[in-house]
Design goal:
The chain is α/β, with parallel strands linked by helices and 220 residues long. It is 39% helix and 23% strand.
Length: 220
């Protein structure tokens, strides 16, 4: 148990040391989030058990880095929010700005309940939607930012995100080493502007920043 505690503390410090502007209040709220995640994980399969010892770097810091790519947004939509990565982590980091709001779309009822519990405990300004993405998209208000992590291959992500976009919206997707292949597949059906940046937490990971999504016309 002592080894586990030391490992968790080191992971916590290594993760947040990457972000010098994280306030003590945000650190405290994120710590409550991680404590709830560990508690719920004992009865719910929220994240891969193999990642729990490195939850701060594998999940929290991985999510926080998206703030470096976000414009001056007011409405952030996270698709397939799961256990709150990245959307709920970003929402916790933005609690001090009451003008910013977050919509977390998660069809799994148990995961949606977890997201609501964390929001209550941390004061994050989020709306949790326990619906399938396709169903919610038909009635949803567009977002300034649409994000997703470990949800689907890029062609599918673009299809799911399209109904949520405005002309100046940005999509932020955390991707792995196969991102080049996924970009090639996506370009068969979509035109878009993309910037890929190295992840600060995963040597093989990338952050895809995508704008100006346009469906290609089918060949006649």
């Amino acid at each position: 148990m002592l080894h586990d505690a030391v490992s968790h503390d080191a992971d916590h410090e290594a993760a947040l040391d990457r972000f010098g502007d994280v306030t003590p209040e945000t650190k405290e709220a994120l710590t409550r989030f991680v404590a709830l995640l560990r508690k719920w994980q004992s009865t719910h399969n929220l994240v891969a058990r193999s990642t729990l010892d490195h939850v701060w770097t594998r999940h929290v810091a991985d999510s926080l880095q998206l703030l470096n790519y976000a414009p001056d947004f007011r409405h952030w939509i996270d698709l397939g929010a799961g256990a709150g990565f990245p959307g709920l982590v970003v929402a916790i980091a933005c609690r001090a700005d009451s003008d910013r709001r977050f919509t977390l779309v998660e069809a799994n009822g148990k995961k949606a309940a977890f997201l609501r519990a964390v929001a209550r405990e941390t004061g994050a300004q989020v709306s949790v939607v326990a619906e399938r993405i396709e169903e919610h998209a038909s009635v949803a208000e567009p977002g300034d930012v649409v994000s997703a992590r470990a949800l689907a291959p890029l062609p599918e992500l673009l299809r799911l995100s399209a109904p949520y976009l405005k002309s100046d919206s940005v999509m932020l997707f955390l991707k792995g080493q196969d991102f080049v292949q996924e970009l090639g597949e996506a370009s068969k059906s979509w035109d878009f502007d993309v910037l890929d940046s190295a992840s600060v937490t995963d040597p093989g990971g990338r952050v895809l920043t995508i704008r100006n999504l346009r469906a290609k016309r089918p060949q006649q």
